[in-house]
Amino acid sequence: MQTIDFHVHLLSPEMRPGRLPRRLLARFLARWQGIDPDEFLADPYSAYTRGLVRLVRESACLDKIVLFGVDARLDRQGRVVHRDATVCAANEDLLALYRENPDIIIPFFSVNPLRPDALERIDRYVELGFRGGKFLQNYWGVDTREERFSAYFERLRQRGLPLIVHLGSEGCVDSVHACEGIAMLEQPLAAGVTVVAAHMALSYRPLTIWRALSRKSRNFSPDYFRLLELLADHANLYADLSSLLTPVRAGVLAHLAGQEQVHHKLLFATDYPVPFSMVFSPCGLPLATRVALDRIANPFDRAVAALRHFFPEDSPVYSNHRKLLQPGGMGIPARQGARPAQDSGSTSTSM
User: Distance (Å, rounded) from C-alpha 301 to C-alpha 307?
Assistant: First the structure.
């Protein structure tokens, strides 16, 4: 059995390693995420895209990935005021990569609703084969509750497009705290959009980081518990597991594994290329198990193997994507040369 990773980032062609400290960090992170460090320093975008495609094709656990960039930050007149040099990949960059690898990539667009032509862009990207949208409204400083965005969400509903919405703390780009919370789901849910809440709405603050490293439920974010309630109440709401293997979110895994009433609404996701190490994870697994997991070279297979300790192979977490994306339909071709699933008893590979 193979699954779909519902949360993968395309990085910007403009990203650069920078000076020595950042170059050293870039080498380490590239190696840890299965990308050649020398190639990454020489040509970051080409190395990243080649490495990403190779890792997905070599994975024993993945069939495809939902891939997206991030639109720029705009002012209230729709003018670009900031474009992050790492995460702000254009939809056109994604389209080019998708056309080269249509059997393993499911493209989601990112369109800031402050763009004057946002609705026209949605229609155009759908015609080009995009299957949903991604919101990083906390980076954009967009409060999704504003009435001015109602037409945007109505267009998504009319087009039958799922929308991934960032929830919780953000550590990779500048973020407006007021736009990180569970309230960002209110208007798209009310409009009838199929919404995917990212990162289980988990938040952390530097001064109380110990709470994020805890496995005790009293230390979990209030929005996490509210999300569990909303998942049970709203047929059009799902949530992904992206970044739940990072130290500041992994403590919740055992608790979430026990919330079987919402497992039919959870989606396997990694947040690649956000790195994670099981050795330093507060997830509660024995050290020997965590060491063995970190030896799995392919980060996607490592993530599946780790999550299977909390969500077994027969969990709906690995197949719920079928409710949002119909394999083989709507322009999604079957994967070419897909590898068969490995023996489920193996620790180094999964599914």
Answer: 10
The model's pLDDT over 199-234, given as tens digits with 9 standing for 90+, comes to 999 987 776 777 778 888 888 999 999 999 999 999
In whole angstroms, give the CA distance from residue 141 to residue 83.
Answer: 13
State whether the Cα torsion 346-66-169-299 is positive or negative.
Answer: positive
What is the rounded CA–CA span in Å between residue 130 and residue 150? 21
DSSP letters along 176-190, please?
A: -GGGSSGGGGHHHHH
* Residue environment code for 246-273, b if the CB has 16+ CB neighbours within 10 A, otherwise e: bbbbbbbbebbbeeeebbebbbbbbbbb
How is residue 225 written in tokens? 């518990």
Structural domain boundaries of the chain? 3-323
Residues 300, 34: Cα–Cα separation, whole Å: 10
Q: Is the dihedral of CA 216, 217, 223, 227 positive or negative?
A: positive
Question: Residue 218 has which token pair?
Answer: 């009293």
3-state secondary structure of 136: coil
Run of H or E residues at 91: helix 91-100
Q: Are strands 80-82 and 195-198 parallel, antiparallel or unpaired?
A: unpaired
Identity of the amino acid at 101: N
**Going by CATH, does the domain composed of 3-323 fall within 3.20.20.140?**
yes
Supply the pTM of this predicted model. 0.89
Q: Which tops the pLDDT comparison, 20 or 220?
A: 220
Amino acid at 320: N
